[in-house]
Amino acid sequence: MTKKQIPELLIWSRLLMGLILIVMSMLHISDYEAYAITLLTLGLLSDVFDGIIARRLQVSTERLRRLDSGVDQVFFISVAVSTYIHCPGFFHQNSTALIILIAAEALTYIISFLKFKKEVATHSIGAKIWTLSLFATLVELNIHCDSVVIFQVCLWLGLLTRLEIMVIILTLKNWTNDVPSLYHAIQLRKGKTIKRNKLFNG
């Protein structure tokens, strides 16, 4: 393996971690909470560093960014499924809010596919912030099987950032990955070059 393959290896590692979480939750292994939080943390760190390393190595291609987005979805769906198996009560009690959030996420993909025939890969700053709130919610759920304040923050951040992503997609003339915000999408629509953060949107 060459060092240029490290980002892709980190991406695929999240897929494996998600599958391991589902299996562990189904087996109801002892100390599941500790394992779940460890794998969730490793998954988040791999998500942060795969992009940074790819940009440092100058291998941050469109294919890699699309793969990153797709695996991210599978990873967090896997975490959600394993958490549901571990704490079904929370999901039943908050089913309406969760359905609305999932529908908003699905709508971003539907809009992107209808307009560009490609999946979402904006990797916006707002979406990154929401991911942190989602991480905090899942950690709290795995520990206590309940979440109130953090879940509400996660819910509303999720809805607001999904709305921003939809508007970003509708604003862009051409499919573009790594669009930090709606402001940057407007600049791209005007044909201007946007400034991206070298660490997070290089």
Characteristics of this structure?
single chain, 8 helices
Note down, in words, how this protein is organized.
By secondary structure, this protein is mainly alpha-helical. 75% of the residues lie in helices and 0% in strands. It contains 8 helices and no strands. The chain has helices at residues 6-27, 32-56, 62-86, 88-93, 95-116, 125-144, 149-171, 182-189. The model has no long low-confidence stretch (mean pLDDT 93).
Shape: globular
What is the distance, rounded to the nearest whole angstrom, between the alpha carbons of the first and last residues? Answer: 24 Å
Low-confidence stretches: none
Q: Give helix and strand order, one letter per element, not per position.
A: HHHHHHHH
Helical element count? 8
User: Helical amount among residues, as a percent range?
Assistant: over 70%
* Largest β sheet strand count, sense and barrel closure: none
Oligomeric nature of the chains = single chain
What is the overall pLDDT average?
Answer: 93
Q: Given the helix and strand composition, which structural class is it?
A: mainly alpha
β-strand percent reads under 5%
Radius of gyration: 17 Å
